[in-house]
Amino acid sequence: MKLQKIVNRLQKLHPKEIDLSLNRIKTLCAKLGNPQDEINCIQVCGTNGKGSTISFLRSILKEANIKCNIYTSPHVKHLNERFIYNDEMISDDDLSDLLNEIEEINNGQPLTYFEALTAAFFYGCRKYKKNLVIAEFGLFGRGDAVNILKKNLCNIVTSCSEDHLDWLPKNDRTIERIIFEKTSSLLENNIVVAKQNSNEIIKCIKKNIYDNRANKYFFNEDYSFVLKENNFFYYEDKFGGLKIPKPNLNGHFQLENASTAIATLRILENIKIKDQHIINGVQKAANIARLEEIKSGKLKDLIKHNKLILDSSHNPGGSKVLNEYLESLNSNKHVIIGMMANKDHEKYISYFKNIASLTTIDIPNQPNAISGKDLKDKFKNIPNVQYKKSIKEAIQSISLKENDLILITGSLYLAGEVLNLN
């Protein structure tokens, strides 16, 4: 209750949920003693794959006994997920104390909620100055509150695609503009660029960072992998090759995310990562609500022996790789979907092929979500589409045969609701 009261107050400091400017957080961080200037940070930007790449980084570093502070957003179930210090999620009491101190020092000045959280994370790093920091920045990097560092160890650019277009001018909602926003202000140290969806996107990234003096590393040019038989993949870069068991995370795209994490840690030679750290870390990495199989719980009990998979993808790029995974499965797929109103719903669903049924639902507690009924109208050309009000009703309405699976997808907020219900 104490934490929620502080959160409620912080959310009222600015009339807008998002206001892409760095002036307010720079002013606040100056009052805090600029804690962001004292950290050693790997920054991660892009559209898809940020969370999974960070999960691989964290898992490998843990194997090497290298402590981390990690900042990600949004959270799935609890706000505390965004604040990892010394490899542990912050407690409610410690987070309350941290946010309360930020509130007092800010002294009522205009500040978005995300800026308050970001300043709090940097301020919290003071207790663990020797730790490696991994920080995700998103939406559009130039104006993201995380993007106030003067120095870092490396920037990772994960897969870039179209998302959050409503924040761009109507006449400039293009992948080129997205890439400009995400990469034009990258610091000049190291840049690792993950596998992209097209050669055009790679060319656009290269053009945009051409004048950046950082050391640059591109997938398929400076590092790569190939999938081998017997559940192994073979990773290779200038330091040599490495045979690695496939991760527990589902989907071929997770090999891409793992490879990006490996490439990053191997170029940072001051971080002493051994081959066995990589092998063990890749296998142990976990990422909540990303092609996650739900193996027990109240919702799982509704379908007994059938598979229940939860995925938080919400844009066309995420849908594309999700459906590449679904196509690899020899089973009937029943999809339950809820989405936020500002997403490209038609393009997202266009990647779904050969599904047995599609059920649209409302996302509880999310006023910015599109209603399940309106989503069904947008998907009216999809065979076997229906609307159900709730997650439970949707699951119970599906007639399952042996080996059928249910996938729930379309939104991180929906994923959080599913996990809480389960």
Structural summary, described in words:
The model has no long low-confidence stretch (mean pLDDT 94). Strand 14, helix 12 (345-349) and strand 15 form a beta-alpha-beta unit. The protein is α/β, with parallel strands linked by helices and 422 residues long. Helices cover 35% and strands 17% of the residues. The protein is built from 15 helices and 17 strands. The strands form 3 sheets. It has an 8-stranded mixed beta sheet with strand order 4-3-2-5-1-6-7-8, with helices on both faces. A 6-stranded mixed beta sheet has the order 12-13-17-14-15-16. A 3-stranded antiparallel beta sheet has the order 9-10-11, with helices on one face. The chain folds into 2 domains: 2-284, Mur-like, catalytic domain (UDP-N-acetylmuramoyl-L-alanine:D-glutamate ligase, 3-Layer(aba) Sandwich); 292-421, Alpha-Beta Complex (Protein-Tyrosine Phosphatase, Chain A), CATH 3.90.190.
CATH architecture of the largest domain: 3-Layer(aba) Sandwich
Helix segment count?
15
Mean pLDDT, nearest integer? 94
Q: What is the class of the largest domain in the CATH system?
A: Alpha Beta
| Rg value | 21 Å
% residues in beta strands: 15-25%
CATH-level-4 superfamily name of the largest domain: Mur-like, catalytic domain
The largest sheet has its strands arranged as 4-3-2-5-1-6-7-8
Largest sheet: 8 strands, mixed
CATH topology of the largest domain: UDP-N-acetylmuramoyl-L-alanine:D-glutamate ligase
State the helical fraction. Answer: 25-40%
Strand-pairing-aware structural class: alpha/beta
Overall 3D form = globular
